[in-house]
Design goal:
heterodimer; A: 385 residues; six-stranded antiparallel beta sheet; 2 helices; B: 287 residues; mainly beta; 5% helix; globular
Chain lengths: 385, 287
């Protein structure tokens, strides 16, 4: 699928209405002025769409993100087997001292929350947990799995509940009102979205006829870009951090499937009292300042999962999120009030692809000290074929 | 088969004379400031203004044939009409830089009282005249009698899947009281979340609005307008008009204009637009 020719494009986008326009408006985070030379994630800022969340879920366990949750820019819904692409992008701000700036559109894949920021050294990140099954409801006592997560199953010492299979993608939906530890399982994302939680399975749910034997394991995998190619990690406070400037490092499985890869020296250094949404190690003119992404080992091109996160010294307080994302588009803005505009068909032929379920959000590089709540407005055009 | 199915169809529309050239010129009188969005439909000029004048809280559908807007010809179904090109210019320095969004204005709920903190039910006795399922339809709150600002409100609506009682984000009234201001915009104010009111998570459009709730009292009146954003452009300076071909310069998109659409602009000027003229040309093509 996709566009096979310009004629095909014209027909699908202008005639068959395979097109969606999203007008968005995100405000700079409300508590602390954006500092020139530093990066921020606007996902948690107010605006349109409303603020997203990096602060829920089991500590250190992967929380999947998608367009059905708060905070992601809508892009026209699921279109598989067609492929969806960005056709146009624009953005501007009329806020005082908001320019220059660079916006980067990313697909947020998920995050590992870290509440234990006073702990020094490696902290293991979790992508999987044991579970039990009763009445086709899956329960894990150690892993609060986000709704609409992509998961796979395995078993140690026995057999999986029937009809679950290994090496197969399934999708979750929380099964009870407020119950964060139990899930229905579906064979498609659309089935999970259409599911009837909290009171019934809904069509498309997996009806499990056995409970399995041995130890059943559920593993959250990347919801999109499953092999991790091009997937990057950034670290941002989900609540304001206390005092400290720890070095931050991760171990990860790279896009080739090699585990325990490490952050190379010189390690990123966190900012004392980093505010919510700040890319914690971004900044200028100092060793250990990077932005927006954590550096990877030589020749690594992406991240499939994290195994651990580490702080070299205790952060006095706060909560971090280690976020996995796929960068899609950059949009430099030069002048207050003047819209940056990109035609990705004719001007910069690239047509970045948007996967079904993508959780689209903006990172921003502040070129000037930018006041709190400064509004950034723009639009995105999507077409599919 | 109607509509453009190939590039040659687009070229053929020119040679076959299936095009329309429409000039427009708005001369707003209201004093505005940088960072606030403004609805040009109530401003004098060509096309003439409309004033959202109807019974309070009762829906009114909008159309070219009854309300005006930028002229785009008579209904041409079963053919499809497209916006092909746009030109915009102003000679007034305080207007620029100015971003503009072309919208199809669909329906409005006039004269909503900002002093009442009770949920105010709105009456929907007409359906959307275009985009009937509500996909991509957005809500904008337009100042029709000036407010103080700073208070918050939310709306309950039916989304484009037909699900009622959806609740928008809570948004904040801005302090710019000029009639025509989009009341939820400001350069840097918490809760001023842009020209369109944020919808509940996962929602992509609106069919109707059931009620509005002011969380504290203000003075002034709002009109809630359902619009379909179609296209945009920016006038960067007074020394050059902006010229766009929506096929060549905007990702190959050619915004579809539905029969009897009411077309007008929102703008975000660099300063005051009082006493200015913002003018241009819209070119349409069809097959």
């Amino acid at each position: 699928m996709g566009f096979s020719s310009m004629d095909d494009f014209v027909n699908k986008v202008t005639n068959l209405n395979q097109f969606y326009r999203a007008d968005w408006n995100k405000n700079a985070l409300p508590t602390t002025t954006q500092v020139a030379g530093e990066w921020y994630c606007l996902f948690m800022g107010s605006g349109n769409p409303s603020a997203g969340v990096f602060a829920s879920g089991t500590n250190l366990s992967f929380q999947s993100l998608c367009d059905q949750l708060s905070g992601g820019i809508q892009h026209g819904g699921n279109v598989f087997p067609a492929t969806k692409h960005i056709l146009n992008a624009s953005a501007f701000s009329a806020g005082a001292t908001s320019m220059p700036a660079v916006l980067m559109l990313v697909d947020l894949l998920g995050y590992y929350p870290m509440t234990t920021v006073t702990t020094v050294g490696n902290q293991r990140m979790f992508n999987s947990a044991a579970f039990t099954v009763a009445n086709s409801i899956l329960t894990s006592s150690t892993y609060d799995i986000a709704p609409y997560s992509t998961v796979q199953f395995s078993n140690s010492g026995g057999t999986l509940p029937s009809p679950l299979m290994t090496d197969t993608n399934y999708y979750t939906l929380r099964s009870g009102s407020g119950a964060t530890w139990t899930n229905f399982i579906y064979d498609s994302l659309s089935g999970a979205i259409a599911g009837s939680s909290p009171t019934s399975f809904g069509s498309g749910a997996i009806i499990m006829t056995t409970s399995g034997t041995g130890t059943n394991i559920i593993q959250c995998v990347l919801p999109r870009y499953s092999n991790g190619t091009g997937v990057q990690c950034f670290v941002t406070p989900a609540t304001v951090m206390g005092a400290a400037t720890p070095s931050i490092s991760i171990t990860y499985t790279n896009a080739s499937g090699t585990s325990l890869k490490v952050t190379p020296p010189i390690l990123p250094v966190g900012k004392t009292a980093a505010p919510v949404g700040h890319i914690a190690y971004s900044g200028v003119a100092a060793a250990g300042k990077y932005g927006p992404f954590m550096p990877l080992s030589a020749r690594d091109t992406g991240i499939r999962s994290l195994q651990s996160g580490s702080l070299s010294v205790s952060w006095a307080s706060g909560q971090l999120a280690f976020v996995l994302c796929k960068p899609l588009l950059t949009l430099p803005m030069t002048t207050i009030g003047v819209a940056a505009e990109r035609d990705l068909m004719n001007q910069l032929p690239s047509l970045p692809q948007i996967k079904d379920g993508a959780c689209l959000a903006w990172l921003i590089y502040a070129g000037a000290n930018t006041p709190v709540n400064t509004a950034f407005y723009g639009h995105l055009d999507f077409g599919w074929g | 088969m109607p509509g453009f199915t190939s590039i040659s169809n687009i070229a053929d529309s020119d040679t076959e004379g299936k095009t329309l050239y429409a000039s427009w010129r708005k001369s707003p009188t209201q004093t505005t400031a940088r960072g606030f969005w403004f609805d040009l439909s109530m401003s004098p000029g060509n096309p003439p203004p409309q004033y959202y004048a109807a019974s309070p809280g009762v829906s009114v559908a909008m159309a070219q044939s009854t309300d005006g807007g930028i002229y785009h010809g008579k209904p041409i179904t079963p053919s499809t009409l497209y916006l092909r090109k746009m030109l915009g210019i102003t000679a007034t320095a305080t207007v620029v830089p100015c971003s503009m969004i072309l919208c199809d204005y669909l329906l409005y709920y006039p004269f909503i009282d900002e002093s009442s903190t009770d949920p105010q039910p709105l009456t929907t006795n007409v359906t959307l005249p275009r985009y009937a399922d509500g996909k991509g339809v957005q809500i904008m709150a337009v100042v029709v009698a000036g407010q103080t600002g700073g208070v918050t409100f939310s709306v309950n609506y039916t989304n484009s899947d037909g699900i009622s009682d959806r609740t928008s984000a809570t948004v904040t009234l801005c302090t710019q009281a000029a009639v025509g201001t989009i009341a939820t915009t400001a350069p840097a104010t918490a809760g001023c979340n842009g020209p369109f009111i944020p919808l509940a998570k996962g929602d992509t459009g609106v069919r109707s609005i059931e009620s509005i709730t002011m969380n504290s009292a203000d003075v002034g009146l709002l009109t809630l307008v359902l619009v379909k954003p179609l296209a945009q452009f920016s006038i960067r300076g007074i020394d050059a008009p902006v010229e766009l071909d929506y096929f060549l310069n905007c990702g190959g998109t050619l915004p579809v204009i539905q029969d009897d659409a009411f077309l007008m602009f929102l703008c975000s000027p660099g300063g005051t637009i009082a006493g200015s003229s913002i003018m241009g040309v819209a070119e349409f093509a069809w097959r």
